[in-house]
Amino acid sequence: MTSTLITGGTVLNTGPADVLVTDGVIVAVGTQLAVPENTEVIDAAGCLVMPGFVDTHRHTWQTAFRGVGADWTFADYAAGIHGILKPHYRPEDVYVGNLLGRLEALHSGVTTMLDWFHAAQTPEHADAALAGLRDAPGRSIFCYGAGYRTDDPIEAEVRRVHAAMPGDDLLSLALGLRGPDETTMDNVALDLKLADELGLRTSVHVDGLTGSRPVAALRERGLLRASTTFVHANGIGDDELRMLADAGASVSISPDVELKMGFGQPMTGRVLAAGLRPTLSVDDTPAVGGDMFSTMRTAFAVQRGIDGGLTAQELLQFTTIDGAEACGLGDRVGTIAPGKDADLVLLRADDLTVAPFSNPAGTVVTSGHPGLVDTVLVAGRIVKRDGHLVGLDLPALKDRLLESRDRIAAAAGVPLDGTWRPGTTT
Questions:
Q1: What's the CA gap between 52 and 41, in Å, rounded?
Q2: What pLDDT band is residue 288 in, cutting at 50, 70 and 90?
Q3: Is the pLDDT higher at 1 or at 55?
Q4: What are the C-alpha distances in Å from 89 to residues 33, 103, 125, 282, 333?
Q5: Which residues are CB-neighbours of 378 under 8 A, at least 6 positions away?
Q6: What is the side-by-side strand order in the sheet with 53-58?
Q7: Which phi and psi (to 5°) does residue 125 adopt?
Q8: What share of the chain is helix, strand, coil (3-state, %, to 5)?
Q9: Do 286 and 77 contact (CB within 8 A), yes or no?
Q10: Which helix (H) or strand (E) holds 252?
Q11: Which one of 89, 169, 266, 287 counts the least CB within 10 Å of its CB?
C-alpha cells in the first residue's frame, strides 16, 4: 500500500483541507486526517488543489505544426493539414506528435484527454499513435477515426486495434464515427453497431452550417446514443439540441477554433438552454493554444458577451466533471471526493499573476495559465512536480519533434515562416 498526503493547500469548492490518497484513490478530504506510516507528503502551501482538466477532443498527431494555421480558415486547414501535410506523415511522425502533444496537455494540467485520431493511413500509423499515448503518463482515450471521410470498410481494422489494446486502466479506446455529412447513413449505422458490440463510446463531428440536419437524420434512423459526443455542432437547430439532450448525449465545444475558422459562435449557451452540459476541447494546435485555460477564457468571454448568464463555476465544471461524464469516467474523475481516482492538479495561487487569490473558480477561469501548474497527479502518480514533468528527456523529445516537422515540411514543399496559405503552395 502506498499513500500520499497533499497538505496545506486550498481544495476547490471545499476550502483549506488535506487530501489523502492511497493506492491511487482519494480516501479522505479534510483536516486532522489519520495518516498511515511512510506516507509521502506533498506540501501544497500556496496552492489551489483541483481536479485535473478533461479535454474531450484533440487531434494530437498535428503537434509538430503548432502555430502554422494561426491565420487559416477551416478550408485552409483541411487543405493544408489533411491534403498537403498528412500524406507525408510516417508512423514515427505520428508517434512523436502524439507523445509530445499529450505531454504538453499534461504539463498544463489536462489529466484526461480524448485523442481524436484521423491520420490512420496505414495500420502502422494507428499503432504509432496509440504508442505515443501509452508512453505519456496521462489518462488518455484513443478515439480511432479509422474511416474518417471515406466509405471504406473499417470493421476489421477497428477490431484489430481493439484486440491490441494493452488493458491499461489509463488508456482506453473509443470510435471516431464517420458523420452523416461524411459518409452514408448505412455506414454510420454499421459504425455504431460495431461500437455497441465492442462496448466503445463514440465521438462524431457534426454541423448544420449548410442547412443539413444531421442530428434529426440520426434520430430518424434510431442512431442517437447517450455514449456519443457530438463535436462542434455549430448551426444545428435548437430542436436537434433537445434531441441530443433526450438521448443523454454530450457536446464538445472548441471555442477558439470555431471562432477563428468560421464555424460560427460557440454553442455554449444554446447547449445549456437545451438541457445539456457542454464540455470543452482544444481541437488542434496548428491553429490555437494547447491549454484549457485559454479555451475556458474564450468560451467564458464569448458567452458572457452574448447573454451575461454564464458563471465561472459553471465553466470550470465543463472542463472537469462534465468532461469526465462525457468520456464515461464521471464515477472515477472530475471531482475531489473519496472513492475517486486521484487525478489532481496543484496550481500556484501565490503567483504574481493571480495573487491575491480571492475567488478560486473566477481566478482560474479568467486569469489561469499553464505557468501556474506546479504539480500533477494521475491515478495518484506524481507526473509533474515543482513545475517540471518527471522522468522524461524532454530536450531529446523536442529535437525529434523538430526533425519530424522539418522533414514533413520539406517533403511537402511548404515554408515555415508564416507566409504559407494552403493553395498557394502544393
A1: 19
A2: very high
A3: 55
A4: 52, 20, 9, 22, 34
A5: 52, 106, 111, 137, 138, 139, 170, 343
A6: 53-58, 110-117, 139-144, 171-176, 202-206, 228-232, 250-253, 278-280
A7: -65, -45
A8: 40, 20, 40
A9: yes
A10: strand 250-253
A11: 169
Alpha-carbon distance of 422 to 426, in angstroms, equals: 7
302 is written with which cell numbers? 464569448
Q: Are strands 110-117 and 40-43 parallel, antiparallel or unpaired?
A: unpaired
Residue with cell 460557440: 266
Cell reading at 414? 511548404
Give the Cα separation of 344 and 382 in Å (integer): 9
Q: 236 is written with which cell numbers?
A: 444545428
How confident is the model at residue 424, as a pLDDT? 58
Structural domains in the chain plus CATH codes: 3-51+332-387 (2.30.40.10), 53-326 (3.20.20.140)
- 302 close to 255: Cβ distance less than 8 angstroms: yes
The pLDDT tens digits for 120-153 are 999 999 999 999 999 999 999 999 999 888 899 9
Going by C-alpha positions, the residue among 118, 110, 161, 167 that lies closest to residue 136 is 110
pTM: predicted TM-score of the whole model, two decimal places: 0.97
8, three cell numbers: 496545506
Burial class (CB in 10 A: 0-12, 13-18, 19+), 339: exposed
Q: Which of 127, 72, 12, 77 is nearest to 419 (CA)?
A: 72
Bridge-based pairing of strands 388-389 and 381-385 is antiparallel
User: Are 117 and 144 in contact, with CB atoms under 8 Å apart?
Assistant: yes
Q: By CB neighbour count within 10 A (0-12 exposed, 13-18 middle, 19+ buried), where does 413 fall?
A: exposed
- Which residues sit opposite 30 in a β-bridge? 18
Radius of gyration of the CA atoms of the chain, in A? 21
Backbone angles phi, psi at 261, to 5 degrees: -100, 5
Q: Which residues have a Cβ under 8 Å from the Cβ of 191 and sit 6 or more positions away?
A: 147, 154, 175, 177, 178, 202
